[in-house]
Amino acid sequence: MPKVKTNRVKYPEGWELIEPTLRELQAKMREAENDPHDGKRKCEALWPIFKIAHQKSRYIFDLYHRRREISKELYEFCLEQGYADHNLIAKWKKPGYERLCCLRCMQPRDHNFQTTCVCRVPKHLREEKVIECVHCGCKGCASGD
Ligand SMILES: [Zn+2]
Ligand SMILES: [Zn+2]
To answer: Among all ligands shown, which has an atom nearest to the Cα of 98?
Structure first.
């Protein structure tokens, strides 16, 4: 397939390797956003969107910070272009937040009883073994789980 290149955005080297995955996730994201949400609770309708946003950020994060397969230039390009959430990635670099699902789940003010969302509580410390947090549908994202 011929590549359509615009003059507005200059794609760094290596972009063609990650583009298919990012395009696929973008397409899924659009699908989730256009989903009619019939019969779902309002918060549940947002879960797939959070999940895909998380996947995109995690993909970029892993490629750069763990697998070291992309250049700093490409990494920063992805952040600038909104392919990954740099606020979320900043948290993943901190001990205890390596698996954080979304920024909302670590904000104490959004939760009535706990200091953070139930999904942030390690599995061995919570009574319910199977959970789904209301914010993003996370099933548990404490570091040791
Ligand atoms: Zn979580
Ligand atoms: Zn969350």
So the answer is: 1
**pLDDT per residue over 8-44, tens digit each?**
788 999 999 999 999 999 999 999 999 887 887 778 8
* 4 torsion bin: left (phi>0), alpha (psi -120 to 50), beta (else): beta
Task: Determine how many CB atoms are found less than 10 A away from the CB of residue 14.
Answer: 16
- Do the Cβ atoms of 78 and 19 come closer than 8 Å? no
8 Å CB contact between 105 and 47 = no
Q: What tokens were used for 75?
A: 């990494």
CA of 42 to the centre of ligand 2 (A): 15
Domain-wise residue ranges, the chain: 15-93, 98-145
Cβ distance 70 to 18 under 8 Å? yes
Q: Which ligand is nearest to the CA of 54?
A: 2
